[in-house]
Structures are given as C-alpha cells and as structure tokens.
Amino acid sequence: MDRFENKIALITGSTQGIGLACALRLASEGADIILNGRKYDERAEDAIRQINAMGRKASFIESDMSRQDDVTSLITKGVAVYGQLDILVNNAGVEKNHSFWEVTEEEYDLVMNTNLKGVFFLTQAFVNYCRNSNRPGVVINMSSVHEEIIFPHFAAYCASKGALKMLTRNLATELAPLNIRINNVAPGAISTPINHTLIDNPELLANVLKNIPLKKLGQPKDVAAVVAFLASDDAGYVTGSTYFVDGGLTYHYEEQ
Q1: In total, how many domains does the chain have?
Q2: In the structure, how many helices (H) and strands (E) does the chain have?
Q3: 39 within domain boundaries
Q4: pLDDT tops 80 at residue 118
Q5: Which residues 6+ apart lie within 8 Å of 137 measured at CB?
Q6: How much of the chain is in helix, strand and coil states, percent to nearest 5?
Q7: Are 137 and 130 contacting, i.e. CB atoms less than 8 angstroms apart?
Q8: How far, in Å, CA of 122 to CA of 78, rounded?
Q9: 168 vs 165: CA distance, rounded Å
Q10: Is the pLDDT of residue 1 over 70?
Q11: What is the rounded distance in angstroms from the CA atom of residue 229 to the CA atom of residue 231?
Q12: CA-CA distances (angstroms) from residue 58 to 20, 51, 229?
C-alpha cells in the first residue's frame, strides 16, 4: 500500500521549485494534492497535469500567504475540495536582499507576514480543523539553514526563519496531546528558481560550493524526500525537530 493512500495534502507555494517537488513526491506515494499559489497560471496547470498522470487528484486554490483573510480561509476551502485534510506543508516563502540599514517597513512586513505570520495562522486554522473533527494531523514547515546560520543582507528573512524554529519547538509540545506532529525542514543551497542569481554566476557558485562538504547544490527532490518521510507514519515518533537538507553546509568547519 502507498504510504499516503487516502490522505489529502495541502502544500503552499506549490507550483514550482521545492513546493512542486513535494507535491509530486506525495502524489507518487498515493496522496491527493491541493496546490496553492498567488494565482492560477500555466505552472499550476502543468502541476495538476503531472499529478493526474500519476492517477492522483489535484486541485488549486489561490491565496496570498501574507494576507490574513486569505490564510484563514485556505483550510476551509481546502477541506471543501476533498472532504478532509491530513497533511499541511507550509512551503510558501519570500526573501529580500538588502543591507540592514536599507530595509523598508514594507519589505520587512512582506517577509515576516509571509514566512511567519501566514504560517502561524494557517497552522492554527489546520489545528482547529483537526480538533473540531477529532483527526490527527501532520504539519511540515519549510524553514531554512538560516534558522541556524547567518545570511548577511537578509536580516528579515533570517529573523522569520529563526522565529519559525522556536514556533515549531513550542507547538510540538502544545499539539502533541491532539496527535498532531510538527517539524521543520531546512534546505541549504538548492537548485530552484529563487536561487537563479547564484546558479547563473559561476564565481558566486564556486564560493558557495567551497562551504558545502558534498560539493554540489541540492535538488528539490532531495528536500521532498525528507518531507515525505516526516509526513508519513514512518516518522510517527518525530516532532519538534529540524531536518537539515544542506549537503553538510550548516555545521561545516574545515581547518585551512
């Protein structure tokens, strides 16, 4: 039997990159998928097509994770699609590259509202759904190695991921009596559209690879594999943890 047979997964920001890889991986193991993004476009159409080709169902719900009214209605709309929700993957996120002294309030709010506030209240809505329907649940947050290590010129992003680390630790204890598990996945340098500047700059890429013991960028499927594990019953005794998918980057130290 597939690990996710009769399971429904909602994945935010899931029409490209890591989010899409997570959707495809969970679908390949039997889940029906609710995709999400800011707007329905050709990427959403293609994602649905790929999932349908696996023999699984897929739907798309528009929402902006930085807007509270969108976030609070996403779970209600998601449940209405297939009648249940079992897995929530909080993948949507944004980053802004600016020196600390140049960050505007608008940019700060966008990053924090999307990466932290949106995750907080979407998870809250999912937990209330699970409580009211007396169902177990699984939450997986897409964090970053920058919940742990510095990233100069991305202060708001680091702050959002550091807060997500503590939120997950706290909720693991609070949600355990409800049979709801929650964990973070922390990607390092992954070959995705958000990293196009790095990928397209050989000198910059070489400098990054020096700090990665495995000497290569990760692929979205590498992250999706860990998400699939954490979403499954194989991880039934795992909650409150962060799983780094970084080729060894985070704790790499080497004498010169």
Answers
A1: 1
A2: 9, 7
A3: yes
A4: yes
A5: 85, 86, 87, 88, 126, 127, 129, 130, 178, 179, 180, 181
A6: 50, 15, 35
A7: yes
A8: 11
A9: 5
A10: no
A11: 5
A12: 12, 6, 21
What is the three-state SS of 86-109?
Answer: CEEEECCCCCCCCCHHHCCHHHHH
Q: Is residue 141 situated within a structural domain?
A: yes
210 in a domain, yes or no? no
Does 108 participate in catalysis according to the annotation?
A: no
Task: Give the three-class secondary structure for 182.
Answer: strand
**CATH code at 141?**
3.40.50.720
For residue 139, being part of any structural domain is answered with: yes
Which structural domain range is residue 85 located in?
8-192+219-239
pLDDT in tens, 77-94: 999 999 999 999 999 999
User: What's this model's pTM, rounded to 2 decimal places?
Assistant: 0.95
pLDDT in tens, 38-50: 999 999 999 999 9
Active-site pick, 40, 82, 108, 157: 157
